[in-house]
Here is the input.
Amino acid sequence: MKLSTKKKIYQGIAFNLFRLMSGILVVVLISILSFIVVRGIGVISWDFITKMPEDGMTKGGIYPAIIGTLCLVAGSMLFAFPVGVLSGIYIHEFVKDNWFKRFVKLMTNNLAGVPSIVFGLFGMSLFVNTLGFGDSIIAGSLTLGLLALPVIIRTTEESLKSIDNVFREGSYALGATKIQTIRRVVLPLAMPNIITGFILSIGRVSGETAPILFTVAAYFLPKLPSSIFDQVMALPYHLYVLSTSGTDMEASRNMAYGTALVLIIIVLLLNLIANFTRSYLSKKVKH
Amino acid sequence: MKKIFEKVIEGILMLSGTVTTLTVLLIIFFLFKEGIGLFGKSPTEEGFTVAVNRENPVNELSTDQIKNIFDQNIHNWNEVGGNNDSIILFRMDDLFNYYTEEELAGIDTNMNLLTSKIDEVIDKNKGIIAFISSKEIPQNPNSKLIHIKAIGLGSFFGGKEWFPTAQPVAQFGVYPLLMGTLWVSLLAILIALPFGLATAVYMAEIASPGVRSVLKPVIELLAGIPSVVYGFFGLIVVVPLVQQIFALPVGETGLTGSIILAIMALPTIITVAEDAIRGTPRSVKEASLALGASQWQTIYRITIPYASSGITAAVILGIGRAIGETMAVLMVTGNAAVVPHSILEPMRTIPATIAAELGEAAKGSLHYDALFALGCILFIITMIVNLTVQMISGKRTRNKLR
Here is the structure.
């Protein structure tokens, strides 16, 4: 009896400690978010998101940075989404479980672990210098696309894995070819999870700074891009510039809070949308 | 017709399947192509050379020796193996100390006059060491060129000074950057580990579904916040905090970077560790409970040891993530390229160095190559981290099957 009370006390201490430490995590997140929301909410206005920066980036808005980030997200996803999904399909549906599959998986995992600044170096060396794109949307988009590839491939693979073989065999039994089966049966079932991965990788791409430092980002460029060979401003780089090397740091502090809040809102929204599509689309598929 | 169509689609699929492999190979090729360019080259700026008097017995100097000579830490030639002559420094501008303006009239246009005068100065002064453009050496010089030891792997990894644009010789010593990176990221993991493991265990074994449904999005959001936002938060909140608590002259220290990195590495650690803990078979846990062990005893005697390889993988992945993180670290660690003695000093990491300096380095210059060489180091470190993790998790699945 005595022993079991002792056990209970230990268990109580341990569990409460774990609860406390997990609670601290929540507190940290809330304090980061609330800090930026409280300071940034007053800055955000219609003008802030639709006007050019003025007076050495201490006044005006962040319109070109928003447009720049949109361009980069669109460009990188145009490249990474189809390639990533096709790659995931190939690895999961076509390759047999042999050394080749293990090798390709290993390479995908390795690519996922490569630091973003290395992508920046690589993008600069290949796209900017060797292929001669210069600092441009296309160079930045391709660099960001390569960075997002492993995430999309992995989520595609995971969602294909979760589909029961019964569906595939049922389709084959009706005389469908492999490609038909994938297109008509497997992909529609896997789509909710693939879309979720896609949305989350948009979040990642829109927040990355290191890969665009030397491939596309402009310090200050108060006009909109006219072609894919133009430089653009981008939200994360703009925040970096405002908080470390602005012309007048005190005066541009408010703009920095606003930019950080816009970035946070984008990430929050994308997470929400991802969770929503996951539950909505998977319900739809079941019916 | 249909068959051809399907073959084409299969071909496209196969091409996409190899894209990551191709990218990794391309990264290796381009990184190392530029990075290797650093080695075997003289550390002086291109087109410049170091010359001495012909009778000076010194033929070769190392980068450190030249730097110390021009910084006037070495005053006599006998300190570097020469005669007992005091060292006279000579740069282009010093020519006007040796000649009057009349003697140098028209020197801006007359290249021959310039080279002959420089040659004359070097000839007349036994202890001189001149840092001049190689164009300013005449055909039959009275001076002697000093051979500067080329940049090698030894001086790259062992060098304690990182002055990539210093004159007359640039110094590319990675040691302080490597140490900075390791200090900052290892401390970050030490901070993150207790929180990460506690949360992982809590989420996998203890928390009710309701609590889990709160914690999971919290962790997803922590993972989703961009690194510049972490850097910004660190700069405005954590930096002054660290400065006040430890009464430091500046708050941008290695510790500040570690705290921010710890928060950033947490989601990785938690997700991977939680997966590993969940992987413990129910039967094993139930056997322990049936023997009268409490839930807590089962967790730390059975579940955690069973999941230990997965937890190790989580920790290593977290370290890898911390080592490669760029922007947040760049913004809060102070970026002093010196060998760290205490975690409360400003430090500089490898990724931060690349991000801060690549914009200023001219393409093809030594500095540019050196930054790519840093990228190679980073790439190799993360490769090792990834392969280790794969090995550990590969072993785990094999053990489970047995």
Remarks:
- The mean pLDDT of chain B is 86.
